[in-house]
Model the fold of this input.
Amino acid sequence: MSAVLAVTEQRGGALRKVSHEVVTGARRLADQLGATVDALVLGAGPVSGSDRLGAFGADKVVTLTGAGLGAYAPEGYARAIADRVKAGGYAAVLFAASATGKDLAPRVAAKLSVGLAADVTDVAAEGGAVIASRPVYAGKAILKVKLTGQPALVSLRPNVFTPVERPKAGAAETAAVSVAPGRVTVKDVKAATGSLDVGEAPVVISGGRGLKEPANFKLLEDLAKAFGGRAAVGASRAVVDAGWRPHADQVGQTGKTVSPTLYIAVGISGAIQHLAGMRTSKVIVAINKDKDAPIFKVADYGVVGDLFEIVPRLSEEIAKLHA
Amino acid sequence: MRNAALRIAVCIKRVADSETRVRIAADGRSLDEAGVKFILNPYDEFAVEEALQRKEKAGAGEVVVLALGGPAAQETIRTALAMGADRGILLQTDRVPADGLETAKALAAELKAGGPWDLVLFGKIAIDDYNHQVGPMVAELLDLPCVTAAAHLDLADGNGTAEREIEGGVEVVEFPLPAVITADKGLNEPRYPALKGIMAAKKKPLEVKPISPGAGGVEVLAMTPPPERKEGRIVGEGAGAVPELLRILREEAKVL
Ligand SMILES: Cc1cc2nc3c(=O)[nH]c(=O)nc-3n(C[C@H](O)[C@H](O)[C@H](O)COP(=O)(O)OP(=O)(O)OC[C@H]3O[C@@H](n4cnc5c(N)ncnc54)[C@H](O)[C@@H]3O)c2cc1C
Ligand SMILES: Nc1ncnc2c1ncn2[C@@H]1O[C@H](COP(=O)(O)O)[C@@H](O)[C@H]1O
Done:
């Protein structure tokens, strides 16, 4: 029976949430291919959370341990994964299109000499072949591609493949591998001040020029707090360029692509380059004083009016819900 | 740096401007190019600018821009030459591969023939195909160390340090030269070609080499408009609309 490999991600010895999405996507594809799912975990030692991957659809959890596999190091990781893929004879290999996955997947593809469908929003099997759909031209078109190489390499856009839990434990296999030290080494990771990354938060509240001045982003931070740690504050390019917010928070074509469950655009006009970064969100809410603002064309729900009145009220009501 | 003079290659792509209204061609698989404005990929502008600044700092060297594309990509090369690159090479084909690895193979072959380089620069992503893969693939094919999506770069004594954004932080990465770097926004402020540069660019060498890239392992089945978002609605005006908005988010959208 053929198998699909789900490449998971860990940081500091703990599995990252996006791993659940990759395993979920792999399960979905494997069911269509009539294949099994191996979840691949790489770490210096045991990785916490890997024993729960069975519940997201992994038939087997394969952990590769080695001194060079603690923190992400591109060359060692790419080599270890490519070797495992060659040994395992996989039909497909799935990555997350996270910062790490975007760096890693192309290297593995080149090592295996197969094509890669990157940042896909859908993956399926048709007649035994792997088919993927990916947004192109800033989300203004969807390209449907067939991967003809073996294995098919795919990276999944974060937050699109909602994790599905099922009551099942996967078998576990651990193999020690020795990884030659790579030339590229991560010397340090400077943590950002914000707790949750806009690319990964289930709720994103973004502010634009309508906020008038940087201090007013406090309104959005209060609203994020009301969501109880599930929300991150994003920004339009206009306010990032003005130096009000860090580039890490920018949503859009030259910033991050986000697909949260709930996206709230506050004082953002909805320029095409902004939409490129958030149009695959599940539910979009817009708050803008201009009823003709283009953001209302993509928003599921809009409130027309002054954000300085609406946002505090919203924070109050959301806080009540979570109280 | 081992040599004072720096040899830097920059791979650049001609792409449809992000302002473009996307219409799908009659074949149902590609962009209808009629009336579309094409530009130098914005991330490649950062790469070109970085190459020029590095060369200027070293005081000597050569910046070569390399594009794979149709005859019209000559304009894109001229734009980079007008910014200040020394010469250009067009790997000319009417079929830009859908498979990034095929593009990478063609670029890698040319880079190998024209090397060695101190730096090979790319954009982190092309804003048409959103592949974000060609740079690291070329690095693998040439067996060079590679840092993707660099927003900051320091080079000294044959070694480099780069910063790249990851979820919730910034990674500080060290590597030896020669290396492949893909440029993110924030790396620098690209210059606008001055009139003098535009005039000079017309006389700079631009070599055209016909190639026929392989079909690769990515077959385009269809290009379609994005799924229409269900017609949205205005819930109301002002703070008074907030309770109704919350009711909808809870009961209809079920996201609270
Ligand atoms: C190559 C390129 C790449 C780009 N990449 C990005 C990108 O990644 N991300 C991005 O966001 N943009 C990007 N842009 C910029 C984009 O085109 C817009 O300029 C930008 O998104 C506008 O930001 P904004 O909506 O905050 O500001 P504006 O367009 O000025 O909109 C402000 C909005 O606030 C509303 N407003 C004002 N006061 C109030 C109030 N009191 N209450 C409620 N509403 C109010 C106004 O009605 C208006 O709609 C890019 C542009 C280019 C050319
Ligand atoms: N046809 C091409 N010609 C030259 N460089 C390219 C081409 N396609 C991609 N690149 C380079 O690879 C980078 C990433 O492109 P992509 O992987 O297509 O998103 C671009 O920013 C360019 O630097």
